[in-house]
Amino acid sequence: MAQPRLSRRRLLKGAALAAVPYALLTDPRADAQSTPVDYPPAEWRPANTANYTASDRPDSYAIDRVVIHVTQETYANTLAVFANPEKSVSAHYLVRSADGHVAQCVHEADIAWHAGNWDYNTRSIGIEHEGWVDRPSYFTNALYEHSAKLTAAICAKHGIPKDREHIIGHYEVPGTDHTDPGPYWNWVRYLRLVNFA
């Protein structure tokens, strides 16, 4: 049986592909690692690996808390802080004030450095919210609604009760000096939204 012959056109296409620098080709491993998010509506905006601890939660640590934060920064600046390896800080998620857009910065299996308490970092998911504790105008309807849907999904996934004992403010973490989410955060409204999401 005769071997099929390669056409001149196929040879040229192969030669052209071989001439493409390897660096220009997509690395399928990078896409596989960076594309999947734990919460499908979220956009993947990774924190620098120097700013969190790789783990395999919940196998290594049970997850039983959601910690609510306020950034004291803009959305864009918060992403820049998480991407800066010298900052030693991250959160799993960041919610934008204007439209409730959610960015995931650390996978839920990994330990974000958000609570300032190692025990709480290992057992919680941290959600940052764009804004300032003394500027309630940042706590928009969109921010509350999208954050509540995110928190409800986290609670459902990890079997976390949707109550104030398990959904806490950063100020409630033992040993913290933080006050967020602050006096203008509407906990009654937020828990109602979480429970009806």
Main features:
6-stranded mixed beta sheet; 8 strands; 197 residues; two-stranded antiparallel ribbon
Would you give an account of this structure?
By secondary structure, this protein is of the alpha/beta class. The chain is built from six helices and eight strands, in the order ααβββαβββαβαβα. The chain has helices at 8-19, 28-34, 75-83, 118-123, 141-158, 187-196; strands at residues 43-44, 52-53, 65-70, 93-95, 102-104, 111-112, 124-129, 167-169. The strands form two sheets. The chain has a six-stranded mixed β-sheet with strand order 1-5-4-7-3-8, with helices on both faces. Helix 5 (141-158) packs across helix 6 (187-196). It is globular, with a radius of gyration of 22 Å. Mean pLDDT is 88; it is low at 6-33.
- Give a short account of the largest sheet: 6 strands, mixed
Give start-end ranges of low-pLDDT stretches. Answer: 6-33
Strand content: 5-15%
| Element-level helix/strand string | HHEEEHEEEHEHEH
User: What structural category do the secondary elements indicate?
Assistant: alpha/beta
Distance between the termini: 66 Å
How do the strands and helices of this protein lay out in sequence?
Layout: H1 8-19, H2 28-34, E1 43-44, E2 52-53, E3 65-70, H3 75-83, E4 93-95, E5 102-104, E6 111-112, H4 118-123, E7 124-129, H5 141-158, E8 167-169, H6 187-196
Concise synopsis of the structure shown:
The protein has 197 residues and is an alpha/beta fold. It has 6 helices and 8 strands.
